[in-house]
Amino acid sequence: MPSSAPVRSKHPKKEEPISYDINIPYVDVDKQSKVSTKYPQYLPSWDPIWFDPLQPFEYEDPALRVRNKSKPNLLPPSAKVSHIQPSLGTIVENVQLSSLSPAGRDELALLITERKVVAFPDQDLIDAGPDAQESFMRHFGKPNYQPVSGSMTDHPAFHIIHRDGNRDEITRFLQQRTTTTLWHQDVSYEIQPPGYVMLGLLQGPEVGGDTVFAATDLAYKRLSPAVTTFLDGLKVTHSSAKMIGHARLTGGLVRKDPVDTVHPLIRVHPVTGEKCMFLNGEFITRIHGLKDSETKWVLDFLMNHLVTGHDFQVRVRWQPRTIVMFDNRSTIHSAIVDYLDDDYGAKARHIFRLIALGEKPIPVYEDEVEDEFE
Ligand SMILES: O=C(O)CCC(=O)C(=O)O
Ligand SMILES: [Fe+2]
């Protein structure tokens, strides 16, 4: 929970040369207040709140409570269900998330584990306010408080993704990178990382600004037994230190101390039982038992496999008032910042993210000795 303990710094300085993470944009707060937005209450705020480290907690995945796999409480006959790709990604129309009973929310969790990414266009939950949105997500797990980046005053579990159409930051970002895509699994450094994640579109460009997802279990299945046998027992350190260090160095807001957590590289999904690659382009510092160049070799190969395998990916196009819910255990994702080009007219994009923290990642070999390779 929030506490009133030390405030390290305030919002980012104007001379900040480049954002550490394209998903955590540098924002000129003074200018922001003048930006026209449909949802001013959701403009990012940088309130000086301090959070203590996440403590272990009991977690039962809501999908495990579902007995009737046809999901009658989620999908009445009037619901229109269409798949975006054969193996992942589904659009559900004529269902309002705000009206779901607890049994309907359990069934939603099951649908998300089955389809990995589910989009619900035209949701009245988008306009129901932050309390209703937070309370909806509480069903799926514990809230997360982001250590850096813009949030909402009095609602620190919100992570706000907002671009006002200004290209300057992207131009700076692309001075050092060749693409705006940054593949990641959300908050993988926490001891109990997110299971379910909600993204809610407040405002977006007519064309562009899609979000792309890759299935980490399907990608795992493509690997040969010789490779999966090697990967199955590996442990990896995920760290928020670089992100937080960068924020501190540049005078940005910091709300938590850095966390380093050892996770299995391959985790077993608690609902589907599938093995998922648990990997991140942003937060991994080492694979235990491997040398630096070997770690880089393994991570480069696996990330390349994930991001180039379009046959186990889905790209979600945002329609107005869409809520996307995805399984952060069986997917890796990236925003696509392609809508700021002059030729197409710069556009604003405004999304909120709410996270439900889930189980401690389940290793393939339960009886492994902790930190055997340290
Ligand atoms: O903006 C998006 O589409 C995704 C943002 C995201 O991945 C994040 O904030 O963690
Ligand atoms: Fe993300």
From TrEMBL:
Keyword Chaperone: no
SUPFAM superfamilies attached to this UniProt entry: Clavaminate synthase-like (SSF51197)
Signal peptide: none
Pfam families xref list: TauD (PF02668)
Location of the TauD/TfdA-like domain: 82-354
A GO CC annotation given for this chain: cytoplasm
Alphabetized GO MF terms: 2-oxoglutarate-dependent dioxygenase activity; metal ion binding
Chain coiled-coil ranges: none
Alphabetically ordered keywords of this record: Dioxygenase, Iron, Metal-binding, Oxidoreductase
Cofactor: Fe(2+)
Domain of life from the UniProt record: Eukaryota
InterPro entries linked to this entry: AtsK-like, TauD-like_sf, TauD/TfdA-like
PANTHER family the record matches: ALPHA-KETOGLUTARATE-DEPENDENT SULFONATE DIOXYGENASE, ALPHA-KETOGLUTARATE-DEPENDENT TAURINE DIOXYGENASE (AFU_ORTHOLOGUE AFUA_7G06030)
Family membership: Belongs to the TfdA dioxygenase family.
Protein name: Taurine catabolism dioxygenase TauD/TfdA
Source species: Penicillium fimorum
